[in-house]
Amino acid sequence: MSSSPSLSARGSRLALLAVALCWLAVLFDGLDMFIYGSVLPHLLETKTFGLTPEQAGDLGSYATFGMLVGALTAGTVADRIGRKKLMIACVTLFSLASGVCAISGSVEVFGLGRTLAGVGLGGLLPTAISMVSDYAPRGRAAIVIGLLMTAHHAGGILSAYVAKWLIEPAGWRAAFWVCVAPLLFAPVLAKMLPESLSFLVAKGRDEEARALAARYDVELPATAERKTAADRFDALVGLFRGGEWVQTLLYWLASFGGLLLVYGVATWLPTLMRGEGYRLGSALTFVVVFNLGGIVGMLVAGRAADRFGAPRISAIWFALTAAGVFLLSVHMPTGVTMAVVFLTGVFLNSAQTMIYATVSIRSTPDSRATAVGWTSGMGRFGAVFGPWLGGQLLAAGHGDWGFTAFALAGVSSMVFIGIAALRGSGSGAKGSAGQELVTAH
Question: Cys staple from 291: which of 13, 24, 101, 156, with CB 3.0 to 4.6 Å?
Fold first, then answer.
């Protein structure tokens, strides 16, 4: 497709707008995801709703369970109504759900709000990744997707500042009212965000797709062969044929431990740091530093994996993560603790992505999407279990074991992905880890 320089420049600007809108949507996603962990120390100290650590862990798991539901259903819903409408629906859902939390008068209503928010949060990220893949400038899809992933951690940073600035003067409900504000962003998406090119092509709306591709100066996606339910089932069965079942289970177990670690730490980091003797303001600063590390980690992990191999980097990253999380159980000088939190954020938040990269590289092209998707899906059960585990430890009076338990999860993922990598070193299809691995995250 040829285009004049003026059209190309205009198309680039419009594509940047589409990517920027998706980045903002994921920023709000991260804000809503992390806000619970940021206000949790205050909720426990003031015994809001008579909240116990055990109930707090359950509430954290409600959101991650909702994310599991949202992630599993996002593809089917998007195929019916379109990526753009689904993004708008997800932003609307988690914004309104935060309003439910803000006005809640009981643990049950608050839990309902977090569950509904999780459904919206889980559906938004894979949909946004699909959108930016369509509208990223030519040859820039991978780096644009990487930049999009930083928005989630930027939302985590924002959540810490919202909690620091609002809890003392206005109370914890004000923090959740801030999370309702993205509702005003939904009309902006409706007016300015174009529909997904992949959706238009899949629906046979080729003329509309060609017009949009020309306007945005991007490649028109190839028409993908639609798979039947039998095809998808056969691809899943293929993951267990012969000796592949061992490899598949190793990947699933590594992913389970990885996401247990990610969401367990994301939920309980401020509370556990408070338990180590830090003031609330300092504990929330650790959330900022942790997510800054996550942004850096997302930007450097891919380069490291390209040079040294995703399986090796994933195993090393989990080992370093486990060491960092365990060190947080030791009261160190604040500056040293800040450095450990930052480095832990660097390794933790990209170690899981390297599992998906490993699975993608080791899979054949026909089975890649299924292998990565199910590895991600099994891992999300760990995401549900992590917040619950932290609550159980605190409720039993073993809060000092929280960091140790999460560190052990990192060690287990290191072992499982390491064994899987060694077993698969002589087999598996080599290819781009590409979009599938990022979408699964």
Answer: 156
Distance of CA 343 to the CA centre of its chain: 19
DSSP symbol at 176: H
pLDDT at 377 over 70: yes
With a pLDDT cut of 90, the percent of the chain lying above it is 41
Query: For residues 358 and 417, is the Cβ–Cβ distance under 8 A?
Result: yes
For residues 270 and 287, the answer to whether their CB atoms sit within 8 Å is: yes
184-189 contacts, C-beta under 8 A, 24 or more apart: 185/24, 185/25, 185/28, 185/91, 186/88, 186/91, 186/92, 186/95, 188/21, 189/21, 189/25, 189/84, 189/87, 189/88, 189/91
Nearest to 402 by CA among 237, 276, 252, 280: 276
Specify the DSSP element, H or E, that contains 432: none
The span from the CA of 302 to the CA of 298, in Å, is 7
**What are the angstrom distances between the C-alpha of 55 and each of 45, 59, 176, 275, 423?**
14, 6, 19, 17, 41
Reply yes or no on whether the pLDDT at 56 is more than 80. Answer: yes
CA–CA separation, 438 and 441 (whole Å): 5
Buried b (16+ CB within 10 A) or exposed e, 346-368: bbbbbbbbbbbbbbbbbbeeebb
What average pLDDT does this structure show over 33-60? 92
Determine what percent of the chain falls in helix, strand and coil, rounding each to the nearest 5: 85, 0, 15
Per DSSP, the residues of 46-79 read TTGGG--HHHHHHHHHHHHHHHHHHHHHHHHHHH
What one-character DSSP code corresponds to residue 240?
Answer: T
Element spanning 171, H or E: none
pLDDT at 142: 62
Gyration radius of the chain's alpha carbons: 21
Residue 316 confidence (pLDDT)? 92
What distance separates the 2 farthest-apart alpha carbons in the chain? 68
Grade residue 34 by pLDDT with cuts at 50, 70 and 90: very high
* pLDDT (mean) for 245-271: 89
- Counted residue by residue, the chain has a size of 441
- From residue 265, alpha-carbon distances to 168, 221, 324, 373, 434 in Å are 24, 38, 12, 23, 27
CA distances from 234 to 223, 225, 241 (A): 22, 16, 10
Model confidence at 227, pLDDT cuts 50, 70, 90, reads low
pLDDT at 438: 46
